[in-house]
Amino acid sequence: MSLRDEIRQDIKALTPRLIEIRRDIHQHPEMAFREQRTADVVARTLAEAGLQLRTGVGRMGVVGLIEGGEGPCLALRADMDALPIQEETDLPFKSATPGVMHACGHDVHTTVLLGVGLALQRHRERLRGKVKLVFQPAEEGISGAAAMIQDGVLENPKVSAACAVHVEGSFVWNEVALRYGENLAAADALAIEIIGKGTHGAFPHDGNDPILASAAVIQALQQIVSRRVNPVDAAVVSICAIQGGTAFNIIPERVTMKGTVRTLDEALRGKMEKWIPEVAQQTAAGYGCEAKVTYSRGCPPLRHDRELTSLAEKALREWLGPERVLMREKPMMGAEDFAYFAERVPSTQVVLGIKSSADAPKVSFHQSKFIVDERCIAVGVEAFCAIALACLGADEG
């Protein structure tokens, strides 16, 4: 029996346990940098299998090491945090934590990586290298990856390449997808305070209305994308929160806004960082108001390494069959702090389908009825194992 067949048998035997683990994690979701229970589940499961462990990496992260023979070290990464959403599914294992839910599949990611650890640990002596399992906190806050890197997750042993997984509601549970080059956008945060002069609502001429100014600023910001950005380039400016005023007849003194800026290109990112304060301040001034703008850079764009992605594509086609390995045609404007790994080592991210069938509607992220077909878990484990063996090599005997 080939090593591939042995690993497949192991995955089949492990799958019921993995589904139980996933349901337990799903029922007890934890927000960014609060993933203590989840980290304990991960650490306990890996310790029972005999892996070397580090805990508290990047505050809440867990790192497990599969010690193979001489050779490179491949990092496989999964995120653990949940979202501030009240779950509205009918699942018997729905979230037991009010206002918190795994609505982005991180419970699946964590479970898939645990499955990889349990499967490959059984065959560690045949691996020509090491596999570092990285269980990361706080992806939703796009700061957990940086925290783990600062704590040395890419060292001791030094990581030569990294791979991540993310579920995707556009694909069926038995499909995976890859993309070459640009995959996800940089995610920057925007905070704007419009300061005017408050007055009675019946006498607007006695003040400077920051609500009216804020409406003009929002429209002007959209014109940056439509009139300053080259139409063949990608940029998004979204104002997602606005607060101002306390009563129906009082023009307030100030209005605050929060939003996000997404770009795929670093040069354009720098231009947006310059243009947005200029436009906001000049527009507000036209209404007799002042605009204070705070532009905060988040994670960079995620770009996949061509050589590693090609290796992953070949391995996945061999293990899963070519009809189950799809290519994502265009990048997405979502963000992923796995990009911090990709800045430092050759990296790629595998997309794991979660729809129950091809004609089922797309499953959208970050919403209260988010649900996955759990058959995807075994597929994800097999996909990661395939990539690990392709990167490291293994002795068949």
Mean pLDDT: 97
* Low-pLDDT residue intervals, each spanning 5 or more residues: none
Largest sheet: 8 strands, mixed
Q: If you compute it from the alpha carbons, what radius of gyration comes out, rounded to the nearest whole angstrom?
A: 24 Å
CATH class wording of the largest domain: Alpha Beta
**How many individual domains?**
2
Kindly name the structural category: alpha/beta
CATH architecture of the largest domain: 3-Layer(aba) Sandwich
Number of helices: 9
CATH topology of the largest domain: Aminopeptidase
Q: β content, as a range? A: 25-35%
The CATH superfamily name of the largest domain is Zn peptidases
Helix content: 25-40%
Order of helices and strands: HHEEEHEHEEEEEHEEEHEEHEHEH
Measured between the Cα atoms of the first and last residue, the distance is 10 Å
In order across it, which strands form the biggest sheet?
A: 1-2-4-3-5-16-6-15
Shape: elongated
Number of strands: 16
Outline the structure in words.
The chain is of the alpha/beta class. The protein folds into two domains: 3-184 and 301-392, Aminopeptidase, CATH 3.40.630.10; 186-296, Alpha-Beta Plaits. The protein is built from nine helices and 16 strands. The strands form four sheets. Strands 1-2-4-3-5-16-6-15 form an eight-stranded mixed beta sheet, sandwiched between helices. Strands 10-12-8-13 form a four-stranded antiparallel beta sheet, covered by helices on one side. A two-stranded antiparallel sheet has the order 7-14. A hairpin with a 3-residue loop joins strand 1 and strand 2. Helix 1 (3-27) runs antiparallel to helix 3. The protein is elongated and about 85 Å long.
